[in-house]
Design goal:
The protein is an alpha+beta fold and 375 residues long. It folds into two domains: 110 residues, OB fold (Dihydrolipoamide Acetyltransferase, E2P) (Beta Barrel), CATH 2.40.50.200; 221 residues, no CATH class. It is 31% helix and 23% strand. It contains twelve helices and 18 strands. The strands form five sheets. The chain has a five-stranded mixed barrel. Strands 13-16-15-14 form a four-stranded mixed sheet, covered by helices on one side. A three-stranded antiparallel sheet has the order 8-9-10. A hairpin with a 2-residue loop joins strand 14 and strand 15. Helix 8 packs across helix 9. The longest helix is centred in the N-terminal third of the chain and has 22 residues. It is elongated.
Length: 375
């Protein structure tokens, strides 16, 4: 009898372990490791998993994923590559209400191209391989499209002139438009979110039909936020057609702004509520002050005088005339801080990247870089 006690003990213990293992849900083990999108597509078994991938768009149907003009914040598509275009290699992810304000693509278009992890249930969504009822989203805090942190990899860890030089190199990789092509581009970049037939005018804030572009009174035309006479670059392909600083504006208001520098103060501008002007400066309405600042600072980084165009730089004065300078820097920095990038500006940056110029405004993606370059 004594010789059989040890084997019987181990046999009983093995049975107990088997029972415990059987009672542990498969989903509990699944959350201990991060899997790829490809693995998640193959494992549509109702288990809970943490999936890592790049945000490549928003699914709107079984075989349709959009990369701009996002209709909402309820879903996103993940892939193992930021450049993936085949929906068969994508995982459709449901976005619960609690995560929509930070991971929904309509509100956060700069998430496109970022790498994130999501924990949820591996099950079909939009009748497609999916991840539903997520309980956690992480990552994707870098900039935007083109791989976000991958796009800005050359700027990592830099400040001051080194950061400015690195960003110049990154954003100078750009598809250039003709001045005629700018018309249609602005109809897409500045589309009214509430009315797709209209554009929003920059200083006026007015929603106006896309078809009313031209040169007559009450038409809208192409406003150069960095006045084209400041450096005398005109409308030739280059800074004169860079849609990161070209915006729709009422013809009359555009004329009132003219080539004035930016500063606070003045009298109210007719047809542009909230905007003010005096003899040598222009102050836009509060809702776009930060937008204006970031457009000016983009131009200062993009055009450094090494590609046949003037070296554009901000300074802290008004009345710059034809010099390749724009002021006032101190005011622009205050506007940038007081009016951070909103959904409209982020979407605009993404549309320019996806559809037109293939480059980005880094100060929309990384607002903190303004003071890193201009302390």
């Amino acid at each position: 009898m004594p010789t059989n006690r040890v084997p019987r003990f181990f046999a009983s213990f093995a049975v107990l372990l088997a029972l415990i293992s059987w009672q542990v849900p498969a989903s509990t083990a699944a959350t201990t490791a991060t899997i790829s999108v490809a693995a998640a597509i193959q494992q549509q078994n109702g288990a809970v998993a943490t999936v890592e991938g790049y945000v490549v768009g928003q699914p709107t149907a079984t075989n349709t994923v959009v990369r701009s003009n996002f209709p909402g914040d309820t879903a996103l598509a993940l892939a193992d590559s930021a450049s993936q275009t085949s929906t068969s290699a994508m995982l459709y992810v449901q976005i619960p209400t609690a995560f929509r304000s930070t991971y929904g693509l309509q509100s956060n278009p700069s998430r496109l191209g970022t790498k994130i992890t999501v924990t949820g249930t591996l099950t079909a969504y939009f009748t497609h391989a999916g991840l539903k009822n997520p309980t956690a989203f992480n990552g994707g805090t870098g900039g935007g499209g083109g791989g976000s942190d991958d796009y800005y990899a050359g700027a990592a860890g830099k400040t001051g002139p080194a950061l400015k030089a690195a960003l110049h190199t990154i954003i100078s990789s750009q598809t250039k438009l003709s001045y005629d092509q700018v018309w249609n581009a602005l109809k897409a970049t500045d589309q009214d979110p509430a009315n797709t037939n209209n554009v929003i005018l920059l200083y006026s804030g007015r929603s106006q039909s896309k078809t009313t572009n031209g040169g007559d009174a009450n038409d809208w035309n192409r406003e150069h936020v960095w006045a084209k006479s400041h450096g005398d670059f005109g409308t030739a392909t280059g800074p004169g057609t860079d849609i990161h600083h070209l915006r729709p504006e009422d013809v009359t208001v555009n004329s009132v702004r003219g080539n004035k520098d930016f500063d606070n103060g003045g009298t109210t501008v007719a047809e542009a509520p909230g905007s003010r002007t005096d003899a040598d400066s222009f102050e836009p309405r509060a809702a776009v002050k930060g937008d204006v600042a970031r457009m000016i600072l983009y131009m200062a980084v993009r055009y450094e005088g090494n590609d046949g165009w003037p070296n554009l730089e901000p300074n802290d004065q008004v009345g710059n005339g034809t010099a390749p300078a724009m002021g006032k820097l101190s005011v622009l920095k205050a506007w940038h801080a007081g009016d951070p990038p909103d959904a409209f500006e982020k979407r605009r940056n993404q549309v320019i990247y996806d559809t037109y110029q293939r480059n980005r405004n880094p100060f929309i993606d990384h607002p903190e870089w303004v003071t890193a370059i201009w302390p």
